[in-house]
Amino acid sequence: MAELAHELPAWQEWCVSDVGSSLRSLDFREVECSRAHEVMERFHYLRSARSDGRAYGLHTESNRLVALCVSSPLDVVHIEVLQRRRGRPAHLTRVVSRVFAFSGSPKNTISFLLSRVAHVEANRGVTDLVTYVNPNMGFKGVSYRASAWQLLGNESGTTYRYLDGRYITDRHLAKDFGRCDDLGYRTLLGTRFAVSRMQLNPLLIFGIAFSHVNS
């Protein structure tokens, strides 16, 4: 806990004060990869950025970032299969892999941002957006439902994995040490590797399909 407290940003950095109350006053545009990476590594609860995505944000008149959303290529087999079963093109589907809003953001900031992102991605030829919602963190998908997303299903077998006592995503494990099952990681990493032992709820899969794609 002491290490985490030392690493986390100061409380002033979590807040945006000059945002006002109107979402329409915010500027929506793409965010540089380096800036998106910094926000996700420092502020997002996973503290793990996706470096292969397109980042979009809402900004104040003074160019302060208020909220951030990252759209990444679909590389999850379970969702690819789900999309094909639904008759949707998996190769034209992308994942909303990260979403974050700073404290002090106006009400409905996330749903407003998601709607803008969906419009831009549709114009780029994307037919579907999907995402995971983690109920174990208290998330219910309210912002997605408010943006016309639908619950598509769930993915069971939720497990948290840790390296040197810190949470690490499966994607980062595979990138740093190759793709293995838990036994393989234990063999490779020894006591540096651990998995969660408590029973966790399945992740919820939300999605939105676009009725048409603009050229």
By CATH, the superfamily comes out as Gcn5-related N-acetyltransferase (GNAT)
Distance between the termini: 51 Å
How much of the sequence is in beta strands? 25-35%
Question: What is the number of helical segments per DSSP (H or I, 4+ residues)?
Answer: 7
Return the domain count: 1
User: What integer is the average pLDDT?
Assistant: 89
For the secondary structure, the number of strands is 10
Can you offer a commentary on this structure?
The chain has 215 residues and is an alpha+beta fold. It has a single domain, classed as Aminopeptidase. Helices cover 28% and strands 27% of the residues. It contains 7 helices and 10 strands. Strands 1-2-3-4-5-10-6 form a 7-stranded mixed β-sheet, sandwiched between helices. Strand 4, helix 4 (109-123) and strand 5 form a beta-alpha-beta unit. The longest helix is centred in the middle third of the chain and has 15 residues, at 109-123. The relative contact order is 0.14. The model has no long low-confidence stretch (mean pLDDT 89).
